[in-house]
Design goal:
The protein is α/β, with parallel strands linked by helices. It is 43% helix and 26% strand. The strands form four sheets. It has an eight-stranded mixed sheet with strand order 5-8-2-1-11-15-16-14, with helices on both faces. The longest helix has 24 residues, at 95-118.
Length: 291
């Protein structure tokens, strides 16, 4: 064999050896992956994410996918002749929009199941309505009623535990019920955080459209690869975090304070970012850890 070919094989072996301690450490541990954004709308990235999650399952993790579908929902809302409206980043959801959202999220979930099953892993698509998984109240936006938008108040993870116990990969759409059994659309970040806390996940991973966390987003040298909960809270109280990252970081710190060991914010646009973060010593995103 030529030396170049041997060097390539040795590099592959080194990658596997570097991953080994992480595989041992997280064997049989639950990892919740919040999946959405650009990684979901790009077919090639979508396949890469599903390959990553499937690999995690095959090497001994217990992954749970919580998926969004915002861009697809907006597309179908517009096709119905309505205009997609948002207040503070939350979709204004009347009864018709709720029906569209549930239909679209259901289809997204089944598409993800198909992709996972093609890779030899059994998967089941559910929503937060199934088994009473997600109970919610109406969520207001600065006191404004924005329709059927839910705020998670309770999680009953039995249906997820049952699926994990029977070797299925659960794929969850962020839809819940209130006490009167009305259907509500839930922000996927909120749903993922609530589920991670309820199942005592070892890791919660947010696949986003940004590289991670910055002290100053306009200064790329201020990237934060690792930060404690108290340090993250200080960034929030000091007003250094804004836009869509603010509620995401708040969810992250809440998850760690409620028993999730680590939370990762990763750029879902980078192929295999999840594997690079979990199975290498340096990682590529931001990890929030307990104090």
């Amino acid at each position: 064999m030529e030396q170049t070919g041997m060097d390539e094989l040795l590099k592959k072996a080194e990658v596997l050896i570097e991953a080994l301690p992480y595989i041992q450490q997280f064997n049989r541990k639950i990892i919740v992956v919040k999946y959405g954004g650009s990684a979901m709308s790009n077919e090639e990235l979508q396949k890469n994410v599903i390959k990553d999650v499937t690999l995690l399952k095959l090497v001994g993790f217990k992954p749970i996918i919580v998926h969004g579908g915002g861009k697809a929902i907006s597309k179908w809302v517009e096709k119905s002749g309505k205009e997609a409206k948002f207040v503070n980043g939350l979709r204004v959801t009347d009864e018709e929009t709720m029906e569209i959202a549930e239909m679209v999220l259901g289809r997204v979930g089944k598409d993800l199941v198909r992709m996972v099953e093609e890779l030899g892993v059994r998967a089941v698509s559910i929503s937060g309505k199934d088994g009473g998984l997600l109970k919610c109240d109406k969520k207001l936006s600065d006191g404004q009623d924005i329709g059927f938008v839910g705020d998670v108040k309770a999680v009953d993870p039995k249906v997820i535990y049952d699926l994990l116990e029977n070797d299925f990969l659960p794929i969850v759409a962020p839809i819940g019920l209130d006490d009167d059994y009305n259907t509500y659309n839930i922000n996927a970040d909120d749903a993922a955080c609530a589920i991670a806390k309820a199942v005592g996940a070892n890791k919660l991973v947010f696949l986003t459209d940004t590289e991670g966390l910055y002290r100053d987003f306009n200064d790329k040298s201020s990237f934060i690869s690792r930060i404690s909960v108290s340090e993250a809270d200080k960034l929030i109280t000091d007003g250094l975090i804004g836009g869509g990252m603010l509620p995401k970081l708040t969810n992250c710190t809440s998850a760690v304070k409620n028993g999730v060991n680590n939370v990762h914010i990763l750029d879902g646009r980078i192929p295999h970012s999840m594997l690079l973060e979990i199975f290498t010593s340096k990682g590529i995103g931001t990890m929030i850890i307990p104090d």
